[in-house]
Amino acid sequence: MAEPVEVDLIFRIAAIGIIVAVLNQLLIRSGREEQAMMTTLAGLIVVLMMIIQEIDTLFQTIKSVFQL
Amino acid sequence: MSGGEVLAAALCALGAAVLGTLVKRGSKEYALLLSAGAAVLILTAALGGAVPLVESLRELAGGDSLGSRCMEAMLRAVGLTLIGQLAGQLCKDAGEAALAYGVELAVKVAVLTVCLPVLAALMETVGEIINL
Questions:
Q1: How many domains does chain B have?
Q2: How close is the nearest chain A Cα to the Cα of B48, in Å?
């Protein structure tokens, strides 16, 4: 049967986005552009890893439902 | 899909849209990832609800007949199109129309490849009827 929509993931991604944006601004203001860039990159990779699991679930579901 | 699930999906999409506009000020890539995550979640939930529908469609098409093969090809095409549409629309959201076009072309080729044997079987059947 249908599983409930996991809204947690959306909130987590939004929270990470906001935190990273704030950190980015702070680091840029204190003159550490390289570290700001690294922070953005690390946050992006973390979020990407979170989403990739969900994409894998979706593709497996599509494969099993439509017998691809 | 029941009414509550549709409502949940709608609220999920709306919340993601609002949060996306909030995050977009900081960095655009997070808004894109947010919309991608929300779309994937909603699609997964919708597909979970579509399982009994697809099963009953398969039963309606019957056993080992031409209709059954047609239905099988159609369902495969639907699955391929789902993946392609999701990827293509996300690429378009990111402003990469060329990537979206590439994905859609690949999906069209795959759907044609899936449907060609069915078309051949249909032609064969039509030929048999004409020869009678």
A1: 2
A2: 4
**Is-contact B94 B81, C-beta < 8 A?**
no
Of B96, B34, B25, the residue nearest A12 (C-alpha): B34
**Which pLDDT tens digit goes with each residue over B36-76?**
999 999 999 888 888 898 888 888 887 777 778 888 888 89
Same domain, B67 and B46: no
Q: How many CB atoms lie within 10 A of CB B58?
A: 14
Q: Mark whether B130 and B101 lie in a shared domain.
A: yes
Domain ranges, residue B109: 62-132
Task: Quick: pLDDT tens for B100-131.
Answer: 999 999 999 999 999 998 888 888 889 999 98
Chain B contacts of A59, Cβ < 8 Å?
A: 83
